[in-house]
Description:
Blueprint: E1 2-5, H1 12-15, E2 24-29, H2 37-43, E3 58-60, E4 65-68, E5 87-92, E6 98-102, E7 105-108, H3 111-135, E8 146-148, H4 149-154, H5 165-168, H6 175-194, H7 204-212, H8 227-240
Parallel strand pairs: 1-4, 2-5, 2-8, 3-5
Antiparallel strand pairs: 3-4, 6-7
Amino acid sequence: MEIIQRFITNNDNYRSNRQITPKGIMLHSVGVPQPNPEIFANIFNTPRPNGRQVGVHAFLGADGRVFQTLPWSHRAWHCGGSGNDTHIGIEMTEPGTIRYTGGASWTDNNPERTRDFVFATYGTAVELFAFLCSKFDLNPFADGVILSHSEGHRRGIASNHADVEHIWNRFNLSMNQFRKDVQTAMNQQNQTIEKPNTPAPWAQNAWNWAINNGLTDGTRPTDPVTRQEIMVLFQRFYNLK
Length: 241
């Protein structure tokens, strides 16, 4: 995942500078067959002189790019309800291989490519939501924290939209599974971040001895060791003796 800041400075959502304390994250789908998130970042940076300006915090694509269009704590008009005051809004792009036939109904011109695209955007969304949940100390399984737009509507905090399930249902993807995958990604991120870079207390004396006797340079105490590194250690120990 690559987060690219492309703030929509010409949009009233940015200019108003209204702040929220994020209590959750709402997932949207753009509703048109356009796979490039950068195009939406550019479109939403155009002022609307004759109507309310809508906006979201980010658009994401199948290639791992995330275009962040608002600071995460800015209030965005993304769901048409009180969820704007509590939730970060994220839009997923949609494959160019589909065609809408009315409302949330669509036909598929290339099922294999469509499936690949949907699963790739799903993966990007998992990474982004895991990042945001960690950043704002949000529990993916807590009530109302991670919602789709349609779930927000059923809770009375968003307008009547069918996304994201109108896309996901064809591929047996669900918001419940999404929340589980976000939690798994958070656990993996935390393991990477919290990986210790110092020897454990029980190994500290031996580690210091090895450094003092030239067996190791003292770096990477918790990393795996290769067979060639073991051979070098054996040779150094033999020479020491």
